[in-house]
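Standup notes, protein team

Yesterday: finished cleaning the Musa acuminata subsp. malaccensis set.
Today: alanine--glyoxylate transaminase structure.
Blockers: none.

Input for alanine--glyoxylate transaminase:
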Amino acid sequence: RYDGPRAAEILRKRSEYLSPSMFYFYKKPLNIVDGKMQYLFDQDGRRYLDAFAGIATVCCGHCHPDVVDAVVRQTSHLQHSTVVYLNHAIADFAEALASKLPGDLKVVFFTNSGTEANELALLITRLYTGCHDIVSVRNAYHGNAAGTMGTTAQYNWKFNVMQSGVHHAMNPDPYRGAFGSDGEKYARDVQEIIEFGTSGQVAGFISESIQGVGGVVELAPGYLPAVYESIRKAGGLCIADEVQSGFARTGSHFWGFEAHGIVPDIVTMAKGIGNGIPLGAVVTTPEIAQVLTRRNYFNTFGGNPVCTAGGLAVLRVLEKENLQHNALLVGSYLKGRLKALQQKHEIIGDVRGRGMMLGVELVTDRKQKTPARTEISHAMDQMKDMGVLVGKGGFYGNVFRITPPLCFTKEDADFFTEVMDIALSKL
Ligand code: PMP
């Protein structure tokens, strides 16, 4: 039983003492007090199936006992900054993490968030190349600090406050993009940005493997290999932002970029890496990592013992419970059921994604692709009342984002689909 502060009191404090820019998904925001695997519980003990997992943050399941145990155990031994002392936790986790990456990607820098990881990755590209220009993709989200805000291209959500030294390329969006699924045509745009908008040399390119905040947009096939070739010819480094698509979420692969048949120069990660604890990382090659000896990068809490002990536990759980395989099986099953739902509901314009990173885009007119913004908010509220939590995103805010913890079962997928079916029928 929960006998702490109720929703109304928290709302009052939040509006008085917290940032006025914080937003809610629901008309009546929930007061969530407990989490257990794929479930969340509110102040009245009501259970919700969590199909959003805090924006793809929880991968093993809420409060997974192995992760909790690792964090608690390490907290009772030592928690401090690892900048100037030795401690095994950071080294053990770096070694385990490196073993999950292809090629020569084996040097890890730890941070506290995805934003910090991407900021550091951008800095590395600029130090390594001596160039300033970065190419990123429209509709991307990479973070909210000075550099990453520039690479983020989400005007509609008011994320872009600052823009400097960044060129935004056409989004290779198979559903809304001008060239449909022809990845190589979109990649021409990057080549032309290099030719017409820069000195011919660039620092680098950054892209998610599947856009998350942007509405679970899978990049058109053939896009990334062609872009990587252009960028490398212009002397730049390629960054894969795996903050949402990493850590087995896409099911077919451990990292989202692997489905595109490319190997990045730098990989950034956060969210799933710690199953909810503040942790991020940048992984690159020994040769590229060497540039940071010129600058002496340090980060007080990045790689602290508690977070890295948690991170190591996450990797072990993913393996022990075969969660990548589950993401593939249950994710494909769920996608199939959602595709069937599309046959029934005219409002579903597109169903897309991989594994447990799925998107359902709502439109009021399938030909015009008119975003169904009010309808999605309405449906989300209905689903919440039936015990299912789901996210939303996309440039127009009309895409359901389905990113559950990877322990989601087939029964959960059935329940989720049935609830969405009822909510859409009621619109
Ligand atoms: N990259 C991607 C792909 C993200 O989705 C996010 C967060 N939504 C970030 C970077 C930034 O991560 P953080 O919020 O941990 O700073």
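Follow-up from PR in the comments: The chain is about 35% helix and 20% strand.
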